[in-house]
Write a structure and sequence with these properties.
With 477 residues, the chain is an alpha/beta fold. It is 42% helix and 14% strand. The protein is built from 17 helices and 16 strands. The longest helix has 22 residues. Keywords: Glycosyltransferase, Transferase.
Length: 477
């Protein structure tokens, strides 16, 4: 983006926001958390709101993240500083600094949110990341409705709440997800994030102050778990909407022979359909130097053409500049177009850390996965993919913290890739069929009349009604 253009978008919040192409009576202020994995789905939702003809939208964030916002969405940038110059939570070098980062984010964004709401003359609602527990209070003080937006899936959220509400004094191992969960699921204790459980009452109390809850998911994938989440604590039913998949990348990708395209896609053009395994562990790698060495050796030993993307260069990783061969390609230290990669005809499998954005990218493009969770709710996403949906294979079995930290040897990586790509042909084919069916359902959900479009329209209608607006274009309920 041109420097002058960026400066004009991110200067003082006192300037009026530029309108979307088709302003509507209801204006939505989206407030993402300051982490790239959290920012992307809310930014995508804001872009969709600007283009749906029923709402307008603004993203409230910091100058660092304003540069990542879709060009179609107005941005209000609040000044933000943190020791060491860190502006992205996911890139903090030390987990002990997390509480201070949350405090700094609130100090920067809470007053800016109040100013943004009060600056808009018409009907306004706030849509904020679920981890911003202070946002419902700010919206309430400004007299506007609030929507909690979950950037994790309904299965993971429902599992955590079920364990929190119904667990015994001490967690058994394995844990059978309690409370009448929609499907029988067993989790190891290490899969349950105890720190997240400790903070869950705070987030649940904040969510109770929201008018509605929205998940970045869709009915064919998680309807049962959204319904469970709606009723899990026995209180009056929550208003829960499935409005995804909201994805940062392009939704319908056309792969052409344009030489100006990313070299990664050009390399994929030369590979056979469904032959390449793609490996990536999100915006931060999270793997040690020894593990990176074993992962690379395992990908080579699998005999499968591979594309390995390491977005952040780490110790022990050589800097590769789109280094490619007939057998594999390694890209380190730069962003890669993941949605386009997974949509490419050559890609037949995805070795993933199971972050929810990556899960949706794979499901939406009908690509099966080899799961390698590292932290947070990723282990719960693995259980959904492997045990419930049966569209993935595990790279490793994790029964303890030591297993999480242990180096996975190259032969285990090669074995998992083999299973994913076709060893045991009948099982691999069945996985591929199931995930392709989910991909079709994901596309249908976000088309006109689809389940997610209908849920979004209902939510907008109800928010308008709270402001006394009459819906001029009724939707199917």
């Amino acid at each position: 983006m041109h420097a002058l253009s960026l400066a004009m978008r991110t200067q003082t919040t006192a300037l009026p926001s530029r309108p979307c192409a088709a302003p509507a009576p209801l204006h939505l202020v989206f407030v993402p958390f300051l982490a790239r994995s959290h920012f992307a789905p809310l930014a995508a939702a804001a872009a969709a709101a600007c283009g749906d003809g029923t709402t307008s939208a603004t993203i409230l964030t910091t100058p660092h993240f304003a540069a990542l916002a879709p060009a179609s969405v107005p941005v209000r940038a609040a000044p933000f500083s943190f020791p060491g110059g860190h502006e992205d939570f996911s890139l903090l070098p030390d987990e002990s600094s997390a509480p201070a980062f949350f405090f700094a984010a609130e100090a920067a964004l809470a007053p800016a949110l109040a100013a943004a709401v009060r600056a808009h003359a018409g009907a306004v609602a706030v849509v904020s990341d679920a981890v911003l527990h202070w946002a419902p209070r700010v919206a309430r003080e400004c007299g506007v409705p609030h929507v909690t937006f979950h950037t994790i899936g309904a299965f993971a959220a429902a599992s955590m709440v079920a364990v929190h509400l119904h667990r015994p004094d001490s967690l058994e191992d394995p844990v059978v997800v309690p409370g009448g969960f929609p499907v029988p699921v067993k989790l190891r204790r290490v899969h349950v994030n105890e720190e997240a459980l400790a903070h869950l009452p705070l987030f649940r109390a904040a969510e109770d102050g929201s008018y509605a809850v929205a998940f970045n998911s869709f009915s064919a994938l998680e309807a049962d778990f959204a319904e469970y989440y709606r009723n899990v604590d026995g209180s009056p039913k929550k208003k829960v909407f499935l409005v995804g998949p909201r994805r940062a990348g392009p939704g319908n990708v056309t792969v052409t022979g344009d030489l100006k395209r990313d070299p990664i896609l050009q390399w994929l053009d030369g590979q056979e359909a469904g032959s390449v395994v793609y490996a990536c562990f999100g915006s931060t790698c999270g793997l040690s130097a020894d593990q990176l060495k074993e992962l690379g050796a395992g990908l080579r030993a699998s005999g499968t053409p591979f594309l390995w993307v390491i977005p952040t260069t780490t110790d022990g990783t050589e800097q590769h500049d789109d280094l490619a061969s007939s057998h594999g390609m390694v890209v380190a230290g730069r962003w890669a177009p993941q949605a386009e990669i997974l949509a490419h005809r050559a890609v037949g499998g995805f070795v993933s850390h199971c972050g929810w954005n990556s899960v949706l990218d794979a499901v939406c493009t009908g690509v099966p996965l080899a799961t390698w969770p590292l932290r947070a709710e990723q282990f719960l996403n693995e259980a959904l993919l492997v045990d419930v949906l049966r569209v993935a294979v595990r790279v490793r079995e994790v029964g303890s913290k030591a297993d999480v930290e242990a180096v996975v040897p190259a032969d285990a990586v090669a074995s998992a890739v083999g299973k994913l790509m076709g060893d045991g042909a009948d099982e691999a084919a069945a996985r591929r069929t199931r995930v392709r069916d989910l991909g079709v359902a994901a596309g249908a959900a976000v088309t006109e009349g689809g389940s997610s479009c209908t849920d979004w329209a209902r939510l907008v209608d109800e928010l308008k009604a709270l402001h006394g607006h009459v819906n001029e274009a009724p939707t199917d309920k």
